[in-house]
Amino acid sequence: MPNPDAAPQNGGPKAYDGVSGGRLNKIMLDNAIAELSPFMRAVVKCRWTRQLPVKDTVKMLGISKSVYYNRCDLAIEQLYIQVNGKAAGIQALYDRIARG
């Protein structure tokens, strides 16, 4: 019998799925990026997909470096929650409980 208190897990792709683990991760990440706002998507694509220099990105987007880095941090947080779903929420709850 499964432990009802255990964090939800995905056993990953099975051989009969025809999808490799790496491909599944890309699909999940692409879907999570698509859920971001257009501005956050632009930040993510400039930084991690196109790997543009910060000075070029902030000029193109019309933002300061501090806003740029803040949006990068927020994007990582949102993507983590999108990809990890319920498990991310449960981990956050465990962390709050552990801190007291």
TrEMBL record:
SUPFAM superfamilies per record: Sigma3 and sigma4 domains of RNA polymerase sigma factors
Protein name: Sigma-70 family RNA polymerase sigma factor
Organism name: Paenibacillus agilis
